[in-house]
């Protein structure tokens, strides 16, 4: 059959990087991050977190093609380095998910104790 193998949509090869960065040569303080093996879920989360940052002038993402498993995130900052802002946003997302995980587990325990 002509269908691509499913595992190629989410598993990285040994020599494959998860994220690549390319500085934009035309726009100052801008760059393009390519996130491999991800889709709209990560793209939109990262974009929204970037837009919360006061150093971000523009943040957007796109998926080039449905059969290409990569997400392109473009960032322009007001003066900060795009890499630093991107890493800060990822760190903030990580903290938010840690908080959600802890809160969820506490509520599950509370529910089990109540029943």
TrEMBL record:
The keyword Nucleus applies. Pfam families: RNA_pol_L_2. One of its GO terms (molecular function) is DNA-directed RNA polymerase activity. GO terms for cellular component: RNA polymerase II, core complex. CDD domains: RNAP_II_RPB11 (cd06926). The keyword Ligase does not apply. It is found in: Nucleus. GO terms for biological process: transcription by RNA polymerase II. Residues 33-100 form the DNA-directed RNA polymerase RBP11-like dimerisation domain. InterPro entries: RBP11, RBP11-like, RBP11-like_dimer, RNA_pol_Rpb11_13-16kDa_CS, Rpo11-like. Keywords: DNA-directed RNA polymerase, Nucleus, Transcription. Belongs to the archaeal Rpo11/eukaryotic RPB11/RPC19 RNA polymerase subunit family. This is DNA-directed RNA polymerase RBP11-like dimerisation domain-containing protein. It comes from Chrysophaeum taylorii. The lineage of its organism: Eukaryota, Sar, Stramenopiles, Ochrophyta, Pelagophyceae.
């Amino acid at each position: 059959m002509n269908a691509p193998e499913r595992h190629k949509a989410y598993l990285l090869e040994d020599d494959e990087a998860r994220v690549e960065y390319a500085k934009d040569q035309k726009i100052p303080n801008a760059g393009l991050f390519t996130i491999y093996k991800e889709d709209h879920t990560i793209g939109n989360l990262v974009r929204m977190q970037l837009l919360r940052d006061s150093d971000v002038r523009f943040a957007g993402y796109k998926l080039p093609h449905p059969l290409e498993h990569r997400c392109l995130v473009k960032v322009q900052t007001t003066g900060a380095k795009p890499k630093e802002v991107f890493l800060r946003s990822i760190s903030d997302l990580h903290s938010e998910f840690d908080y959600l995980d802890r809160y969820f587990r506490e509520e599950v325990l509370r529910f089990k104790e109540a029943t």
